[in-house]
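A further point concerns the way the authors explain their paired sequence and structure data. The central task, working out the structure tokens from the amino acid sequence alone, is never made concrete. I therefore recommend that a typical entry be quoted early in the introduction. An entry of this sort, consisting of the sequence and the corresponding backbone structure tokens, reads as follows:
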Amino acid sequence: MEKKIKKIEDMSLNAWPSHKMELYDGWILRFSYFYTHRTNSVEQFGTSTLSWREKVSYCENVYKRLGSPAIFKISPLVSPDFDYTLENRGYDIQHTTEVMTVSLSEADLSVSCPNVTLTDEIPDIWITSLFDLKGMTNPIHRAVVPSMYRAIPKETVCASIWKDGKIIATGLGILDRDYIGIYAIHVKEKYRGHGFARQICTSLLKEGAKKGAENAYLQVVKGNTPAQNLYSSLGFKYFYTYWFRVQPRQNGVEL
């Protein structure tokens, strides 16, 4: 199980590059102007030689300089004692996320997908449409994030559904080894409940299978019941949970 978790954790790092990254004694510090927790946090990927106390203080100073609280991703690969160390420093748990997986031979891919357009590249219009679907207006994010999508080193499958000349649903598949990772599933609010998200996911899984993928993974925020129900109906099953420890505020200000 640990080997498979490590594989998915590595693939998720490949799938979503950060704007800035620093390697530090078996840790990777990621910074993206707080676009997401995943791209703005510290992840452990190798063996440490320095003490946790020294390393946490170093990370806190780095993120303070960048204008962000320090955030640490806690997966099953991270020692529970490290999580406890952060808890004792006052770090809160945020953005608890469940990873789900499926063997494509067991996935339910029966639904037809007549509305879905697939491209190998990620068009600019897809990125700006995704921003609009998410209601993302932060000018720094809108300037920086497109380069993060273009920096994805793996083969991609970009999915969209168009209505009246505009994209109203998105999805992104990222191929890595024998997996396809499912990302960026969003549907314009007025079109939800019409099965578009199912069409997007099914199209990505089918295309992934055509390109050699045998399995799929995705990440869903805990408590997002509609998304969890959709993914379960496609055959995805819960695999493991990760969360983020976020540095506390001091005097009302995040450090």
About this structure: Confidence is low (pLDDT under 50) at residues 251-255.
